[in-house]
Each structure stands twice: as C-alpha cells, then as structure tokens.
Amino acid sequence: xxxxxxxxxAAVRLDDPWYDALAPGWGDLDGTGGxxxxxxxxxxxxxxxxxxxxxxxxxxxAFREVRRRYRRFVVPAAAAFLLWYFAYVVAAITAHxxxxxxxxxxxxxxxxAGLGQFVTTFLLTWAYARHxxxxxxxxxxxxxxxxxxxxxxxxR
Length: 156
Known about the structure:
- This protein has helices at residues 50-58, 61-94, 96-100, 109-151; strands spanning 2-5, 8-11, 102-104, 107-108.
- By secondary structure, it is mostly helical.
- The protein is elongated and about 65 Å long.
- Residues 9-13 and 21-36 have low confidence and may be disordered.
C-alpha cells in the first residue's frame, strides 16, 4: 500500500508477520524452496495454483472442524444476545410500569436492564475471545502454516 503526501511519496508496507517466518528450530531456506541440509526437510512442493490449494484446505477435515467449533459458539451466543436485546427493547416499549419500577433510589428496572446490555456485551466479547483462544486459534494457525507452506513460491 502506498501513501502519497505532497511531492514526496512515502511507501507504507503492510507485511504479514507469519508469512516468511520459520518455525523455531528450522534451518534457513536453501534458495530452492526447501530447507538447508542442517534443518528438517522442506515443505512439500505442489504443482497447483494458489486457488487450488485454498480450495483443498477449505475442503479438508481440519478446516471443517475449525468452522464447526466457530459456529457452535457464535450461533447460540448471537441468538441469545439478540433475544436478550429484543426483549429489552420490547419491554421498554410495552411494559412501562415494569420498566419504571424503582430498584434503588432513582435507579429503575429500565436503567438496570440497559446497563445489563453493556455488561453482557463485554461478557460475550470476553467469552468469544476465550473460546477462540482455547478451541480454535491453534488449529487455525496450523492451517495457515500449512497453506503458506503449500503456496510458497507460487506467483499470486
């Protein structure tokens, strides 16, 4: 990506930190796409286009498992949150007496429920990040490594 600023042009490069990185303990590339003799054997060489490789990964059991874990968390969590949100909105519109009932001092049920929306948003964000870290990130990163090893050397 390039950014122009007046007569001088400054190039801003957005690099993917994982793209050219080798796993710890691996040797240097030997210039042929393999690993130097002092390291483990290089990644397998494929004669496919990048699109073929991505389709192969997308159809793999590992990719389907990552997607399944994602959906098993996100669909129920989103449904529960939307149900809670719409219940709050409907109650605010239709149940004036309930929402106006005082809880403590000037604080009423509507205010508590409204603050509860913020609390549940933060709790859901925390739960999503925790679930991703514990159940998906490692497998997704392995898929990414595999895909990048297979596409290394392919002109995109």
